[in-house]
Write a structure and sequence with these properties.
Layout: E1 12-17, H1 22-35, E2 39-42, E3 64-70, E4 77-82, H2 87-97, E5 102-104, H3 109-112, H4 119-122, H5 138-145, H6 151-158, H7 171-187, H8 194-213, E6 217-222, H9 226-230, H10 235-242, E7 250-256, H11 259-262, H12 275-283, H13 288-302, H14 309-325, H15 333-344, H16 349-361, H17 376-387, E8 397-402, H18 406-420, E9 426-429, E10 439-444, H19 449-457, H20 464-478, H21 482-494, H22 501-514, H23 518-538, H24 543-563, H25 569-588, H26 599-613, H27 619-631, H28 637-647, H29 654-665, H30 670-676, H31 678-690, H32 693-708, H33 712-724, H34 748-752, H35 755-762, H36 770-778
Parallel strand pairs: 1-6, 2-5, 2-6
Antiparallel strand pairs: 3-4, 3-7, 8-10, 9-10
Helix pairs in contact: 1-2, 1-12, 5-6, 8-10, 12-16, 13-14, 13-16, 14-15, 18-20, 20-21, 20-22, 21-22, 21-23, 22-24, 23-24, 23-25, 24-26, 25-27, 26-27, 27-28, 27-29, 28-31, 29-32, 30-31, 30-33
């Protein structure tokens, strides 16, 4: 008996479909109308049977998905997405509209979620598995057999363009079952070892339905499974396959889905390349190509592209001509795309990319009713979204927030709390205008996976603030490094979680007291200072945080000079970043009570002077310390020029001198400093021209990195200075009168600098000899 013939009493109607295939969806609707079964069985998790009536709700709009997740481990989840053009969704809606019972018959999610991802580990031992190493794509094999190199194009030609469901409503299923039977005879399970267990469960459920309803059973499932469901097997054998399967406690609900997510490979039955095109084929009552090209023209005109009705007419003609040349019954997406590129886009792929993104794939986001089961955290999030008028959207959009406004501040707190919970609905972005702390810019895009993240975060609390507070406290205790705790403190202030701050601050104080790595301390201080500034903007109390920041700064001051001694080039470059960060942080710390008396700034300037004068400190750090003192006004231009002259003297190795220059003039403003102070530029210029050839190749990469970071205008000005010669108008003060490297007279300050070393070598013999030593050094 052929199970796809017109159904009589007791007949089994197996409707093999392609998941998310509009042709299959139309054929299923026609077959159900023709056969009028007494029950409709659908491939899907049986735990979702109580949710089937919700599919008829007015506020249920596909694409949607069944989400199953483990109760004790919400991150372990699985989706069963359904679009408006999915055959399973069409069957579900037909059953609800006609009062016919509908049930899901696939393997329960309680077993599916308990399986490991590796299919080889999931297979039951001792099973007969012919050809298990050959994992095939059934549609791909059929397309290749028919001489097609594209399974999508083959499916369009044999199903979408052949009027599936017209005439004999069951003919498409008969042909598809014959093809799949031949494939199963050749490839067995085709490398899908789990399918035999799923098919055993589906056969058992079909038997139960036939006993309960006495016949008239229609089954909507993937065409690949039809031959296995048709095969007669014993109940005992099927139950044996299901015996001993692992289990987990599972919850199932409806969640919104997106066309963009359907275009990805992951997910049940997903991976179609053009969901927007398929939705159009399913919804278009007639002339689908003409309607599609009209839609494309509307999109391009909205983007200010010059597209007229004449372009649409010519594109339709070209698509039909291409289909005839390629031997296709009707133009498909390929022909339509080629016509759009040639006629409407003038051969350019730039506007065509917009068509692919907006129409071929699309950003359609489904909706589910409020009555669907959900964890309390999800309900609180939905209420907050409605109150703040911040609904989820599938397409990415930019949101500018003014934190001085209550709505803007509340939206910011919500987004920061969700990020703390791992729900990355919004990601911070650089503001389009202004850099003040009163403004924030976010990029928002709602992805279906965020429903899983929300369920997973439900273990921390029933509301977003409570869950974020509990998560922050747990993260603080589990944090490995001091920088992690300071970043968490910053996040708590951004998210306005005052109840979490005591725990975070206690952990922060303990870690800061125990951590002896100056690099860790220096890395943590900027985050703390930013937290203080954010607290001021958002009205959050930060007194305890200010005390910790001041204490951390003091420890950095004490430990930084010895930590900078004897570093290699890479470590010195990393430490320079920490020095810059601490310097910037102290600038922000100037207005808080712990720094108002100026002691912290004075201590920091003393640390910089120590770094600038200590010979064991790498040149890049000594140069950076001099530059920071110069920028602060604590060092005169003449003194900076003197220190540079010392470093660039012939006695200093060229590599060390180049590192000093990198620290001094590297970074923001270094080029302008050389442009406006020709004495410094002259020193660098003369030193560079005097570097020996054998050492020049060693210093060139470092200098090139330094000067290539300047803006084009600065580099151009420096080139002009080199061309005309820096300091040409006043060279008498800087050009040596005698031998290279020696000045015209005695420099008493340079002579005095060697006296401590002489005392160590000769020993102090009394104050009366000091003057003689000095005069001898000068001679």
């Amino acid at each position: 008996m052929n199970g796809v013939q017109a159904q009589g009493a007791g007949e089994l109607l197996l409707l093999g479909v392609r998941h998310h295939g509009p042709g299959s969806a139309r054929a299923v609707r026609a077959a159900l109308e023709a056969s009028r079964p007494g029950v409709v069985l659908i491939e899907g998790p049986p735990e979702a049977d109580p949710l089937i009536p919700l599919a008829a709700a007015e506020d249920m709009r596909p694409p949607v998905a069944l989400l199953a997740h483990a109760v004790d481990e919400p991150g372990r989840s699985a989706f069963w997405p359904l679009a408006a053009f999915s055959p399973e969704w069409v069957a579900l809606r037909w059953a609800l509209e006609h009062g016919v019972p509908a049930r899901f018959i696939d393997l329960p999610a309680t077993h599916t979620l308990a399986w490991e991802r590796d299919e080889e580990d999931e297979e039951k031992p001792g099973e007969d598995a012919p050809d298990e190493d050959v994992r095939i794509d059934p549609l791909g094999v059929l397309a290749d057999t028919a001489g097609y190199d594209d399974a999508e194009r083959w499916w369009e030609d044999v199903v979408e363009h052949r009027g599936a469901g017209k005439g004999d409503a069951l003919a498409p299923f008969t042909a598809l079952e014959e093809a799949m039977t031949a494939l199963r005879e050749t490839y067995g399970s085709g490398g899908h070892g789990r399918d035999r267990i799923r098919e055993a469960h589906m056969r058992l459920r079909i038997r139960d339905a036939r006993r309960e309803f006495g016949g008239g059973v229609a089954v909507v499932c993937g065409a690949w499974h039809v031959p296995a469901l048709r095969r007669r097997t014993g109940v005992t054998a099927d139950r044996a396959l299901l015996k001993g399967l692992p289990r987990v406690k599972t919850d199932v609900t409806w969640v919104p889905w997106t066309h963009r997510r359907l275009s990805r490979a992951g997910g049940y039955g997903a991976g179609i390349a053009s969901p927007g095109w398929y939705a159009h084929l399913f919804a278009a009552p007639d002339r689908p190509v003409e309607r599609w090209l009209t839609k494309v023209a509307g999109l391009l005109r909205a983007e200010d592209q010059p597209v007229s009705p004449g372009h649409v007419i010519e594109a339709v003609r070209l698509a039909e001509t291409l289909a005839a040349l390629r031997g296709r019954p009707l133009p498909g997406l390929g022909e339509a795309t080629d016509a759009v590129r040639a006629v409407m886009c003038e051969g350019s792929d730039v506007p065509l990319a917009l068509v692919r993104d907006r129409l071929v794939v699309g950003d359609v986001l489904g909706e589910v009713p409020d009555t669907v089961p959900a964890v309390p955290l999800q309900r609180d999030l939905e209420r907050t979204q409605r109150r703040l008028r911040l609904g989820p959207e599938a397409d990415e959009r930019e949101l500018d927030l003014d934190l001085r406004e209550e709505t803007g501040a509340e939206r910011s707190r919500l987004l920061h709390r969700l990020r703390l919970l791992g729900i990355d609905w919004g990601r911070p972005a650089a503001p389009r205008s202004g850099t003040g702390t009163f403004r924030e810019t976010w990029r928002l895009r709602w992805e279906p996976e965020l429903a899983v993240r929300t369920a997973e975060a439900g273990v921390w609390g029933t509301t977003v603030p409570a869950a974020a507070t509990a998560k922050a406290e747990a993260d603080a205790v589990a944090a490995r490094g001091l920088a992690d705790v300071t970043a968490l403190a910053e996040h708590c202030l951004l998210a306005a979680l005052p109840d979490a701050l005591p725990v975070v601050m206690r952990v922060l104080a303990d870690r800061a007291a125990l951590d002896t790595d100056v690099a860790h301390l220096a890395q943590a201080l900027p985050a703390l200072v930013r937290s203080l500034r954010y607290g001021d903007v958002r009205g959050t109390g930060t007194a305890a945080l200010a005390e910790v920041a001041a204490g951390l700064a003091e420890r950095v001051f004490v430990g930084l000079p010895p930590a900078c001694a004897g570093l290699d080039a890479d470590a010195a470059e990393e430490m320079r970043g920490h020095v810059d960060a601490v310097h910037g942080a102290l600038g922000l710390l100037g207005d808080v009570p712990a720094a108002r008396d100026g002691r912290l700034r004075a201590r920091w300037r003393a640390v910089l002077r120590t770094l600038s004068a200590r010979g064991t400190v790498p040149g890049v750090l000594r140069g950076r310390a001099v530059r920071l003192l110069l920028d602060e006004g604590e060092l005169a231009q003449d003194e900076a020029a003197r220190l540079m002259g010392l470093v660039l003297s012939p006695g200093t190795p060229p590599a060390d001198a180049a590192a000093w220059i990198e620290g001094f003039v590297g970074g923001s403003g270094g080029g302008l400093l050389l442009v406006h102070d020709e004495r410094l530029f002259g020193l660098v210029d003369r030193w560079l021209t005097a570097v020996p050839a054998e050492a020049f190749t060693d210093v060139l990469p470092l200098l090139r990195r330094t000067f290539s970071a300047y803006e084009p205008g600065v580099r151009r000005t420096l080139g002009e200075l080199v061309r005309r010669g820096p300091g040409r108008h006043d060279r008498t003060d800087t050009v040596a009168a005698g031998a290279p490297g020696f000045g015209p007279g005695v420099d008493e300050s340079r002579a005095d600098a060697v006296l401590p070393v002489l005392r160590l070598l000769l020993g102090p013999d009394g104050d009366e000899e000091t003057h003689g030593e000095r005069m001898e050094v000068r001679r």
